[in-house]
Amino acid sequence: MKKNVFTSLLLVALLAGCASGVKLDDVPVEDKSATSSGVSTQAIGTEQNTAQTGVASVVVDKSSTGMGPAGVAHVVFFDYDSFVVRAEARPVLESHARFLQANKQRKANLEGHTDERGGREYNLALGQKRAEAVRQALSLLGVADSQLEAVSYGKEKPAATGSSEEDLAKNRRVEIRY
Questions:
Q1: d(Cα 127, Cα 163) in Å, to the nearest integer?
Q2: 89: which of 11, 65, 99, 131 lies 20 to 30 Å off by Cα?
Q3: Paired residues of 173 in beta bridges
Q4: pLDDT of residue 70
Q5: Which residue range(s) make up the domain with 85?
């Protein structure tokens, strides 16, 4: 029990010390105001359709189709030349941890990526360290190690192809794939 409390406090301190002023405007954000009691936005306003056509709409929960937690980002971003998990990644990691704990048969691939700066070997090592940092954070949140696999693609699979700081920042990431 003391070990879990200590590791949780350590993770909180680590994440709190890693705050960054980098803007992540392109990261998908869950809009909880658009849904009510687990009903997707596709179902909003269907009472009107049901009254007109007599046919009720079917709401599909994407989390049951193998895509991971619905409405949650699948990317964790990193600062330049760093494999320290940022504090703003905590809600994303907590959501994925809850999903994996509730679905013990599911496995997640943690794919580490870097921007184009640096040599191939260096970037493969940095991508692996980023993937391992996300793996450790998920483990500290209670996910079994057997559910996680960390791999590195280095700079080989960029999310953005430009050389601007904005493009480079999009490439410094770990993608969580199910």
A1: 19
A2: 65
A3: 77, 113
A4: 85
A5: 2-29+68-177
Domains held by the chain: number: 1
Amino acid at 5: V
Q: What is the mean pLDDT of residues 127-150?
A: 98
Tell me whether residue 83 is in a domain: yes
Q: Which residues of 114-123 are buried (b: 16+ CB within 10 A; e: fewer)?
A: bbeeeeeeeb
pLDDT band at 1 (very low <50, low <70, confident <90, very high): low
Interhelix angle 120-140/90-102, rounded to 10 degrees, is: 60
Q: Is residue 20 in a domain?
A: yes
Distance CA 141, CA 54 (A): 46
Query: Cα(57)–Cα(132) distance, rounded to whole angstroms?
Result: 42
Which has the minimum average pLDDT: 48-62, 66-80, 129-143? 48-62
Q: What is the pLDDT of residues 110-121, one digit of tens each?
A: 999 999 999 999
Find tokens 């953005």 and name the residue: 160
Strands of the 108-113 sheet, one edge to the other: 75-77, 173-177, 108-113, 148-154
